[in-house]
């Protein structure tokens, strides 16, 4: 097993996650099997109870793991399926060591950070690194490890010590350290300054880790004299110093590394030059070119609670992007704070209220994502009502689906007090109720989490067609409340169809409105399985409907499914086929 460790210095937010993902993609393009581990030094056991404002979105895995959003980048770039163990936190390590101490596994010895915590970290890394994540048998070739935080952080110290021991343990030729650092340009003199990186590398070396490759973040490519200076003072060969300068979008980062032969330097450090093949990123390059060339806009109004921090909806944004690139449309996201749509805002700040409604009414499609808490709920309901009444393409995810049902019950069925018991426990018309697969009192890991199967009830509905006329689909969930099964027949009789349900028929998974261009709500989170070149089917439906080409996509999905079933999925004029909720593309995009 070979290991690539990605660390960061000087400041946080340099893009270690994207760098680690890009390295993994390049090694994969060289014919190697790759897995990933993200180390988060915080004391939380997982990211499940952390506010999106605090740490961005919570990414959900197939096994129900609630993890750092960087694992979403790993899955999207590498098209892999990770597990909760691929996200290692201080909380998990200390909990495992304390559990062993309570069971007497240490035979009365004094339990200390060194060696017990550091040994536990190394054992965890070795164990997880050997688990395949690409659906094939046998261990991967390379494990890319990202150490969260910045070198010098107190909370990272046990991990740095453990990784220093680990690099010695696995030996030269099996461990490569890529240090991501900042080379700022001072506007006063316009000169690239190397001192911050020098200090960062010095700190790293003093802690027992020596970088093999420097990945320097800067506004422009490093000048040759700057590279020479860094090489001299950081003891890294010039050919192993690469620049991660500003690019239009993160799809360029793997190409940036490829052009500077970063993968060659890594392969050389890991003694893999003989095993690897020439990096083939043809499809990735073509898709990036398409992305860069898009001109025709499609406007999607994102009506949410956490619009102040876009990372709160990172996977939703990526899924929209994947779908828009497939439809050859330039994605324009209009951020609408749900509370700004409410009447109380009209009285307090009328200009803000008007601006929010202008954005909503100017959009080609409306998306109401998931969320927790009652702030902005009424605004989301108003946005949903506007989409329903004005034939605007709509996708509601998790809470977005639940509120679509609440709005329908209020407006069409006449239940003025219809609500979710999450927000109004005593409502006489409970459209959404707590369903017993979790606890209402304990927050962490108590929800309906991970991959669950949805069975289609109506074969010719839009959702089933988008999924290639599949009989069922597996998607990831993260919720506690669900549509009240006792109200289903009344709601369906009024025109809102529950076209997808779980195996018991009691949990409503997909809802569609009849006689509407595209009005779909889903209890699950399809964004978590969207990939570049393999957009989520339901996001593709939203973008296609907003772009006026939904019928072409529906016909293509059914056609491609037939091709796949017949075992002849080797490309068509549209270059796509569908499988388990994703549209697979050969990079040519969707033409209509």
UniProtKB/TrEMBL annotation:
<comment type="similarity">
    <text>Belongs to the CTP synthase family.</text>
</comment>
<dbReference type="InterPro" id="IPR004468">
    <property type="entry name" value="CTP_synthase"/>
</dbReference>
<comment type="function">
    <text>Catalyzes the ATP-dependent amination of UTP to CTP with either L-glutamine or ammonia as the source of nitrogen.</text>
</comment>
<keyword id="KW-0436">Ligase</keyword>
<dbReference type="GO" id="GO:0044210">
    <property type="term" value="P:'de novo' CTP biosynthetic process"/>
</dbReference>
<keyword id="KW-0067">ATP-binding</keyword>
<dbReference type="InterPro" id="IPR017456">
    <property type="entry name" value="CTP_synthase_N"/>
</dbReference>
<dbReference type="GO" id="GO:0019856">
    <property type="term" value="P:pyrimidine nucleobase biosynthetic process"/>
</dbReference>
<feature type="domain" description="Glutamine amidotransferase">
    <location>
        <begin position="309"/>
        <end position="543"/>
    </location>
</feature>
<comment type="pathway">
    <text>Pyrimidine metabolism; CTP biosynthesis via de novo pathway; CTP from UDP: step 2/2.</text>
</comment>
<dbReference type="InterPro" id="IPR027417">
    <property type="entry name" value="P-loop_NTPase"/>
</dbReference>
<dbReference type="InterPro" id="IPR029062">
    <property type="entry name" value="Class_I_gatase-like"/>
</dbReference>
<feature type="domain" description="CTP synthase N-terminal">
    <location>
        <begin position="2"/>
        <end position="272"/>
    </location>
</feature>
<keyword id="KW-0665">Pyrimidine biosynthesis</keyword>
<protein>
    <recommendedName>
        <fullName>CTP synthase</fullName>
        <ecNumber>6.3.4.2</ecNumber>
    </recommendedName>
</protein>
<dbReference type="InterPro" id="IPR033828">
    <property type="entry name" value="GATase1_CTP_Synthase"/>
</dbReference>
<keyword id="KW-0315">Glutamine amidotransferase</keyword>
<dbReference type="GO" id="GO:0042802">
    <property type="term" value="F:identical protein binding"/>
</dbReference>
<dbReference type="GO" id="GO:0003883">
    <property type="term" value="F:CTP synthase activity"/>
</dbReference>
<dbReference type="GO" id="GO:0005524">
    <property type="term" value="F:ATP binding"/>
</dbReference>
<dbReference type="Pfam" id="PF06418">
    <property type="entry name" value="CTP_synth_N"/>
</dbReference>
<keyword id="KW-0547">Nucleotide-binding</keyword>
<dbReference type="Pfam" id="PF00117">
    <property type="entry name" value="GATase"/>
</dbReference>
<dbReference type="InterPro" id="IPR017926">
    <property type="entry name" value="GATASE"/>
</dbReference>
